[in-house]
Every structure is written in structure tokens, then in C-alpha cells.
Amino acid sequence: MSKRAVDAVFQALFLLSDVRFLLRETAPGHDLNEAQKARAATTLDKVKRQVAILEEELIR
Amino acid sequence: MKCAVDIESRDVEEMYINIDPIQAGGRLTAEAMRAAIAYGDGYSVCDNCRNPPRLDYIKNPPIAQYHADLAAWLNMDTARVVPGARRGFQAVASTLVEKGDPVILTSLAHYTEFMAVEAAGGIPREIPKDAKNHITPDAAAEKIEAVIREFSKTPPLLFVDHVDYQFGNVHDVAGIAKVAHQYDIPVLVNGAYTVGIMPVDGKALGADFVVGSGHKSMAAPAPSGVLATTNEHAERVFRTTQAKGDVTGRTFGMKEIEMMGCTLMGVTVVGMMASFPRVRERVQHWDTEVAHSQAVVDALLSIEGTKVLSDYPRQHTLTRIDTRESFDTVAQQHKKRGFFLASDMKKRGITGVIPGSTRVWKFNTFGLTEKQIRHVGEAFVEVARENGLNII
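YS: structure for the whole thing
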């Protein structure tokens, strides 16, 4: 049982939901302002960390 | 991109600004999207269902608390979540209306109110709207008198829409409720276009029942909604089963008949709950939403020949517009006929105008950002200008 992997899946999906919400807020052009770009960058970094945890737990 | 066999992923909200009249208030919050991921399984909220085994007693996730919060938020005494506003109408009508009873609703009432009355065996009688498309207390009084004369009995229930679906006009519910109560008629307020998008105070409205729609106005998955009532009516509408099996002798404890036991057992209730903090907060910004609606209406009115059929200035984000003397004149000559408007708007990243509509149609600006509002207004004017209409 890898609680860490399960948590990472949820966390990544939740973070991607935030990105999805950002796409909605900025539709149709998705022309992000500086604050939105910063928000996107932070969120995507966090997603990468969760994916790394999943690789660690499930593949390596 | 497909999300399953033969099912395309829905990316309407990500790719376009959506001004569809019924979809605006039901768009999920980011929190509800997260909840939908975690609670998609069927009976997902039932992991910790204990005694009594009923949805509104579940403490984890905090569904019991949510019920209490909903009632308090609407300034009512008690609330239940229901599978859509229509099931709230049905529960109340089924409780209060006997076969052959006249039931008052309005000439702007949603069809599901009629169906709830019909299912209960009631006979619908409509309060007429006035020339400004309003339901007034005077008209309500006249109708009640007429119905009492016709049926020799007092109607057991009156439905009134806080904001109607046809014009998006705000009606004098408090005045109508005051009249109804003079005849001891309980009042059900249909808040499908208000609960969750603008402040609603059930007691101030004089409501005996407030019904809201989760998927129309509370940023929740469908089908979801709320039925709230006062202590005076709660025991009757939320009565528990007395049924007993004659062979098995089984009884069913605290299950509520009109709720058919439990109502929203998964993603619907958790979606409502997840959106609730933001919903509670967003109703405080109703003035901004109305100003946004007004900005788009004004842009449309700058196109010569366009008329607004809803109240003006706008008091709601749902608007009925008449473009028979503007966009429809273009449609007469256009190779795409009436489809040109939806098509030209879609090219500009805007959807929700019903394809083919260039005569009388509705749109809803709720939830759009300032930038998106500007884009919508400019797009309408640009389409008009490109098609030879005058901008005034």
C-alpha cells in the first residue's frame, strides 16, 4: 500500500483542476497576465513534484 | 479528445466564453472540480454513514453541518438537499396538495412547477403578468379571490419565482407572500435563478419554502438542489415513513418519505458542499454581476433596432433580448440565415447563443470576468458592424 502515491495522484489531479479553472477564467484567448502566469508556474511546479513522487513510488 | 468510448471530452468552458442562459450559475468552482475527482464513485459519501442511517446525519464528510449551514444561509429553519429544484417542488406539492385542489402559480412559472402540481393531482391556476412582465401582489390577490370563487376552497399552495426564467426579472415576492398569507396559503419561492448567485433571505421574503437549484445557480453537479422550510412545515414535508412489511415486519426508521430516504449520495452533494464557501462569498458581489450584465446589454442596445425585453436597467444577469430589427434583418439576407450570429460569435470565442436565434433570445453573463464581459460586448458590436448594422 502506498499512501504516498495515492496522495500524490489526488494532489496532482487537484492542482491540474486549478489549471483547468485558470483556462476557464482566461477563455477564449488564454492570454494570461503576469499574476496568472506566476500562478500557473507555481501550480505546474507543484504538479511536477507530485509526478516525481509517483515515479519514485511506483516505477523506480 | 475522447474521455471514454464515443464520449468526447467537454471543453466548452475552457475554449469559449459561455453565455448560455441556463448554464452560467452551475459552472463548477475549482473546489467542486476537485471534489468531483475524489467523490465520483456512486455511494461515495456513505463510507461513514452510521445511525441514524440518513444522508443529513453523515458527519464525515460534513453533510450534517452543510444542511445546518444551508438553512442558516437562507434564513430558514431546516433544509434538505434534493436532486434538482423540481424535486423540491414535487416534495412540497406532494405533501400539501390533494387531488382536485387548485394551486396558484404564475404566468412566468417554470414548467416543472406545473408538473409538480399535476403529479399531486392539483389543478394549476396562473397569476397573470402585467404589461412590464411582472407578477404583482395585486394580481396575486385577484387570482386568489377568483380561484376561491371557482373552487369554493382556498388553494393549499402558491408558487412564485423570485426571478423568472423567461425575462430574468426580479418579482415582489415579499408583497405576494404577504397577500397569500392573508388567506393562509403557504408560499413556495422558486429560487432557481437566485439561490447561489444573489443574496436570498427566506424569512424576509416571507417564504414558507425556498427551493434552489444546485446545478443552475450553486456551482454544483446535476442533479442537485435545496429545499428549505420553516419549523411550521418541516415536520409535515420531512415526515418519516410509517410503512411496515406485512411478511417481513420490516420498518424503515427515520427515512423521509418525500426524500425517498436519501437524496444526493455522491458527487452531487459533495460538489455542492465544496462550492459552498465560494457561493456564499460570491452572492456578496451581486452588484458587480449586475453591472457586468448591464454593460453587455448596453453594448447590444448600441446596435440600432435592438430592444431589451427584460427590466431595464438590468437587475439580473439573465436577459431576454429582441433583435428582430437588427440581427434578424441580417439573417434574412445572409447565406447562413439565422445561424450567422452564433457562428460569428463562436469565431470570436463566444458560445451559448442558440444557433439559429436572431429574433428573441436570452443570454446570461453570470460569473464572467471584467475582461470577458468587455470581449462579449465588443464582439456583438463587431459582428453587427461587419454585417452592415448601424451602431448608435
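YS: worth flagging: Helices of chain A lie at 3-25, 34-58.
IM: good catch. Also Chain A touches chain B at residues 10, 13-14, 17-18, 20-21, 23-25, 27-29 (CB under 8 Å).
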